[in-house]
Amino acid sequence: MEKIVEKIPHDRVKDFDLVPKFFEGKRVCMFDIETTGLSPNYSFTYIIGLNVYVDGEWQIIQLFNDDGKSEPEMIETFGEMIRDYDVLIEFNGDRFDIPYITKRIQMIKRKLGIDIKNCFTDIVSFDLMKCIKPYKYALGLPNIKQKTIEKYLGIDRVDMYNGGQLIDVYLEYLSLKNEKNRELVLRHNRDDMEGMLFLGAVLGIDGISKGHFTDIKYHVINQNESLIFEVEARLENPLIKPIFTSIDGCSVNAEEDTISVRLPIFVGSLRYYYGTKESDGFEVKEGYFVPVFKGYEGKCPLYKENARDKSGFIMLDDSFLGYKPLIYDYISYMICAIMRSTKK
User: Fold this and answer.
1) Distance (Å, rounded) from C-alpha 10 to C-alpha 14?
2) In the chain, % of residues over pLDDT 90
3) pLDDT of 7-27, one tens digit each?
């Protein structure tokens, strides 16, 4: 087994890397694997790449199965290296990398009699792909592949081969031991590992829908003879790229460290129902209202046109506008709903 270590200059990733801040107080590492196939029953691991955060900077460490026989040593070394960490970050690792390694541990014991401890039992995994997936439509992404997200963030790297194509390159290396093939397989994994550092920026996008903003201010504006309720706030983590998305006349516009939410105001009469049916009774309120999508379970009273309506409205009265926690609660929900909408 060969071990390759590379330090990544902080200045290269500092504008993208939100991992240390989001997991403050936790010891964090990342990993990605290269295999000779998709099935752990009929293939094996030939590279395990790790990003480890040490003394305020990242290191890329690659464990390379350079002889085709070092998989048990490589997996065992990997397990020892992550033993002191709290969080293991990956990209699609919950679905592929972690189950694959787990199965290979079982296969190694059954076929070779080597007992390797399952290295995932004492660490929490965090899948960056799952983190960005809910915002695919809001960000206009054609898919959620790592390279696609990197390109969205402005990282446009050139990769001559994909993982599947590199299987033959690696197998040829085992036969010829030529430096070119070795460099190709290591470079692909190394670039994936560095790309994961840039993907830390997606945590800022996820933070928007999780209410990571402060300094809320609101305005009522007249736009084309229609009233708009606009809420502005300051983001806790600046964005790498502006975001604009909308659904049913409700919009989110975020850029750098500011976010603006615009919601149409309905003027008229609506009903507050005491139960889930018309027969449960209601009271009629007249005034100014803003929409809320179905599923809202916040602290504000919900007004509707009919008892069975899934969505509804919140009244812009003094009890709401005079209490910022209520505005924060409502706006947080609406941002999440707009950002996670699957409507194009």
Assistant:
1) 6
2) 83
3) 999 899 988 999 988 999 999
User: What residues form DSSP beta bridges with 226?
Assistant: 223
Closest CA to 194 of 45, 16, 36, 2: 16
Q: HSE, CB side, 13 Å, CA atoms: give it for residue 221.
A: 11
Confidence tier at 277 by pLDDT (50, 70, 90): confident
Q: Confirm if 230 and 262 have CB atoms less than 8 A apart.
A: yes
3-state helix, strand, coil in the chain (%, to 5): 35, 30, 35
Residue 143: count of CB within 10 angstroms of its CB: 8
- Given a cut of 70, whether residue 344 has pLDDT beyond it is no
- Gap between the Cα atoms of 274 and 55, Å rounded: 58
Which amino acid, one-letter code, is at 314? I
| CA-based R_g, the chain, Å | 25
Sequence-distant (6+) residues with CB within 8 A of 103 are 40, 41
